[in-house]
Design goal:
303 residues, 11% helix, 2 helices, 5-stranded mixed beta sheet, single chain, mainly beta
């Protein structure tokens, strides 16, 4: 398993290698480039090994993040396979090279830094959406490193029903999937996994549809008394929904109809799991915020 201590520091080295920052020796810049190349080769070698089945619990790589991402939250892959993430208090988006453990860039939403309880991110074609826990969606375009990007605010008007944590895009129904962490509506929904489907564009002008799955169908032998999703993503091969829950240390996969594929505990060491993404070449990426250990993104084979 390979680690990167201090992502931002390595970014500075790569920028220096491009001649954008004086004061760093050419030897140091070459050393950074060599280290990045070594990491890429290490991951490629690990993925080329036969799958022994241990990949469910043994990561193929782990990158420890810097202070700017100590409260890393959601993860999202762009249409061309790049990884975006964000913190949970400020409207800043970061691009990470998940194969080599490099922070590539960061940009800001709005001309003034926005403060909100940001809990999820997803990409729809060339648009990016950040989800706040109150159900508000910030839509914007990707910006260059260090730049600002304008945004459009959408209010789902669901804050009285759910505290949200996690968003994904289902292209088969052209809808954003909003995962409900805490159900605020009294009644049977309290004992269900609840996912709202917000039709694009602009919610379709009608109330979002809702997928509900009784927890009794999901807990199985795991002993979970509840389920509080931290993030949701879509398996690009099967189209199924994959959900993680930090509180229960859970990962589960369901079909778009709500049928359970599997439900199990997250691998050991993944405390405070906040984000999940799956690449087209079957890499599971999970982000964990800082706690007893530094914040990190950890890579596993999928499935």
């Amino acid at each position: 398993m390979t680690r990167l201590a201090g992502t931002a520091a390595l970014l500075a080295g790569l920028v220096a290698g491009a001649g954008c920052r004086p004061g760093r020796s050419e030897t140091t810049a070459r050393g950074d480039s060599a280290e990045v190349a070594r990491r890429g080769a290490h991951l490629a070698q690990a993925l080329a090994q036969p799958d022994s089945g241990a990949s469910r619990v043994a990561p193929v790589a782990q990158w420890v993040l810097g202070d700017d991402l100590s409260e890393i939250s959601g993860l999202a892959l762009t249409t061309d396979g790049r990884l975006f993430t964000h913190g949970d208090e400020q409207g800043r988006v970061f691009e990470l090279d998940y194969r080599r453990g490099v922070l590539l860039k960061q940009f800001t939403i709005g001309t003034h830094l926005i403060h909100a309880d940001f809990e999820g991110i997803t990409v729809v074609d060339d648009a990016v959406f950040l989800l706040a826990s109150n159900g508000k969606l910030y839509e914007f375009q990707e910006a260059a490193n260090g730049e600002e990007t304008a945004y459009t605010l959408h209010d789902t008007r669901l804050s009285h029903e759910c505290e949200f944590e996690g968003v994904a895009y289902d292209p088969t129904i052209t809808s954003l999937l909003l995962a409900c962490k805490n159900v605020r509506t009294p009644g049977p929904l309290q004992d269900s996994l609840v996912i709202y489907r917000w039709k694009l564009p602009d919610g379709g002008g009608s109330r979002p549809s809702r997928l509900t799955v009784p927890l009794s169908r999901l807990a199985g032998p795991n002993g979970w008394r509840g389920l509080h999703p931290s993030d949701i993503t879509i398996d690009p091969v099967s189209g199924n929904y994959v959900i993680i829950a930090a509180e229960e240390r859970a990962i589960l996969e369901i079909t778009p109809a709500g049928d359970l594929v599997f439900a199990r505990h997250l691998p050991a060491g993944l405390s405070h799991a906040e984000g999940v993404a799956i690449t087209r070449d079957s890499i599971l990426i999970i982000s964990t915020e800082a706690g007893h250990h530094a914040a990190a993104i950890t890579l596993y084979r999928w499935p």
